[in-house]
Protein 1
Amino acid sequence: MCGIIGYCGPRAAKDVLLDGLKRLEYRGYDSAGICVASAGELTIIKRTGKIAQLREIVPENLPGVYGIGHTRWATHGVVNDVNAHPHTNCAGDIAIVHNGIIENFSALKEKLVNEGHVFRSQTDSEVIAHLVSDFYEGDLETAVKETLQLLKGTYGLICIHAKEPGRLVGARNGSPLVLGVGQEEMFLASDVMATLSHTKQVVYLEDGEVVSITNSDYHICDLRDRPVDKKIETISWELENIEKQGHPHFMEKEIFEQPESVLRAMQGRIDQENATARLGGLNMSTTELRDIERIKIVAAGTSFHAGLVAAYLIESVAQIPCTAELASELRYRNPIVERGSLYFAVSQSGETLDTLSAMRELKRKGARVLGICNVVGSSIAREAGAGVYIHSGPEIAVASTKAFTSQLTAFYLFTLLIARMHNMSFEAGRDFIACLEALPGLIQKGFEEQNHIRALAEKYSRYRDFLFLGRGLNYPVALEGALKLKEISYIHAEGYSAAEIKHGPIALINDETPSIFLVPNDSLRGKVISNMKEVKARKGKVIALCVADDAEVRDTADDIIAIPKAGELMYPFLMIVPLQLFAYYTALKLGRDVDQPRNLAKSVTVE
Ligand code: AGP
């Protein structure tokens, strides 16, 4: 997703902007640019490629203490230097950076062109600069507000005027925007990653809000000019949380962080005395929780896979009907919100527009929606108003890993809480807690297979198609394992229910399509072994994830990855980590950009 940044202060703006964009590059991008103002002039430097390449063409002595910057994830217009942001008006004295999609830009552009405006780019964003220019009569904030009245779609934007030194105006609708409050300097950015090295004091803007900043002051109002009183929040993260800490990639760091991140997701939430969980953020009374008749989960990507695991778990353990659905599908199918339903919107970033929009549609229909998010203060977290933060710490790599197991942890705790209000006994609750508390150690033990997994990844990296197969709770894990491989190695991989391959996918089996089976010693083990044998009978190569002493699986598969023994319900945690490593090492072998895979964004804030 695009990243935007703005700065007003005493320092060289170019350095602050370039460093800030560097911290936003995890969002995924294909080009970048900055605009710095000095002596009544705007200097714009932008190009395709990485921040490092942009930095090479920025003059070392570029003057100016206020400016804006952008990393572009192309939505409208090819990836080239002209379409990179910032964009300006005809006179070149107004510039903007924008994250989002202006859905009515074609009509606006046509009108502006007919009025004589000359456009340089193919982007939707450029119309904003020309509109602000049309409305400008000496006050940038007013011109921006009048422009916003015409825009349909989403934006997180920042605007600068050469004739208003030391002032920036920002606005948000559907795409995030945060204000960093410094000492005699102010920042605007898509997220706190860009400002954390300068200040921990932040103000999160809401949709429909406009912010005007100078180096020493700011004010926020709505589109009708009514002042909005916002509190300054303090970020709890430390900068080192977003550094690699000696790892070659953020993804590797985040995979190996999972014993700690799963533990963090549990901390303070286990009630041993009553053999249940404590989730105060739900803001629901015991009676309200007890009366839930059905649960529905909406999410995208990896978060959706976590929701699928949760759906199996909640229904089987708590005996409450539970389903998971793609947010992008639910949003447009006119869903029925039944009384007694509780919804969860699951999102690591808390900014995924598909999930945010689905949540808003559900709330319009009267649904109660809780958020399960990682980023504190994110849009989904704030608009849900209640839910569970997963506390996995900043997840920088585009491919989600630790957030997945932390989301699972949150759902397992919720399942315990709800199940203990219904049919789960005290002893069963204690057993469930014991299994949860054993997880960090078991995940850590699973890393003993690291070198073997790397060897297998390198051995199988030449194949172009994979099937990932699991059943029950591990079926969604097969989907997630396939997603990990395809999104960072660019190898085609499909996740399937192991039983389902008989109904078609087995036609794909040959000696060039390896199948990765998830076959723990659980109640479905025998059936999955049968599925494995069906594949072997057709010369398919099989990699099996199983407990180390499972001789029958060892004899059936071509290769195995041993996982620690655990309670049957806990295998999703122990199965996904080897699959994350398999994908990571495959991508490394193939020389992929592991942390920022092509075409992908960390947070998809467009539809
Ligand atoms: C996962 O590795 C991908 N980066 C992607 O599928 C991601 O899970 C999806 O875009 C949802 O993101 P969210 O959890 O921030 O909402």
Note: DSSP finds 19 helices and 26 strands in the chain.
Protein 2
Amino acid sequence: MCIFCKIINKEIPNNTVLENEHFLAFHDLYPKAPIHILIIPKLHVDCFQDVSPQTMAGLTSFAQEVATKVGVDQTGYRLITNNGEDGAQEVKHLHFHMLGGGHIAWDHSHEDNHKNI
Ligand code: DGP
């Protein structure tokens, strides 16, 4: 079982922000912004490339609720998912990072200084 499934099953503790039948939002263990929340579907899917439009439809309104709950709905935030090896995805359970609480720098460049992309 993957680490996020263990969090969903409460085998590993987490700092929950919001939860419903299908989704869970909790604070990232290694925050990269004043507000750094992870948003995950409870049904295991490895990555964005494998997720259904139906799951994404529910995730959209859930993420909007999370933004309101943590108070970044008006100030703004970045919502990103790392997909696969080149996307630097470490945990193989689809998750979206919600980053906010201050201006977020744009530094997701290619390691070779984005010469070729
Ligand atoms: P990614 O590189 O996109 O796969 O990001 C994985 C994120 O998951 C990373 O920011 C750290 C976070 N993380 C890993 N293990 C745990 C955990 O056990 N608890 C929490 N809250 N976050 C975790």
Note: Residues 1-43 form a domain with the HIT family, subunit A fold (CATH 3.30.428.10).
